[in-house]
Amino acid sequence: HWSLDERFTFGGYARTTPELDAFAADFEDRHGLPVERVYVAKLLFALTALAEEGAFTPGTRVSAVITGAPETPAPREQPLRAPPPHEPPPQESSVSR
Length: 97
Fold this sequence. Notes:
The structure is a single chain. By secondary structure, the protein is mainly alpha-helical. The chain has a domain at 6-68. The chain has 2 helices and no strands. It has helices at residues 18-31, 40-52. It is globular, with a radius of gyration of 23 Å.
């Protein structure tokens, strides 16, 4: 038997919320692992919430299989900043004596 729990959509397909971003940042800080924000963070948030709610029998081992690299940068790394404006190199003086 399985069921679909829609509490963990965080706004829908490919979307995130400040709550989810905060969870992912905390997870990264606690475990030292980068967390992709769109899909993996939702999975980990849901598993954490379900465990806290007692959805799993005590002593149960739960595995989360993540098959891709964390490609979405953390919000705190965004927005990308523009590089500083290009400054021309200093010119050598050509003073003739």
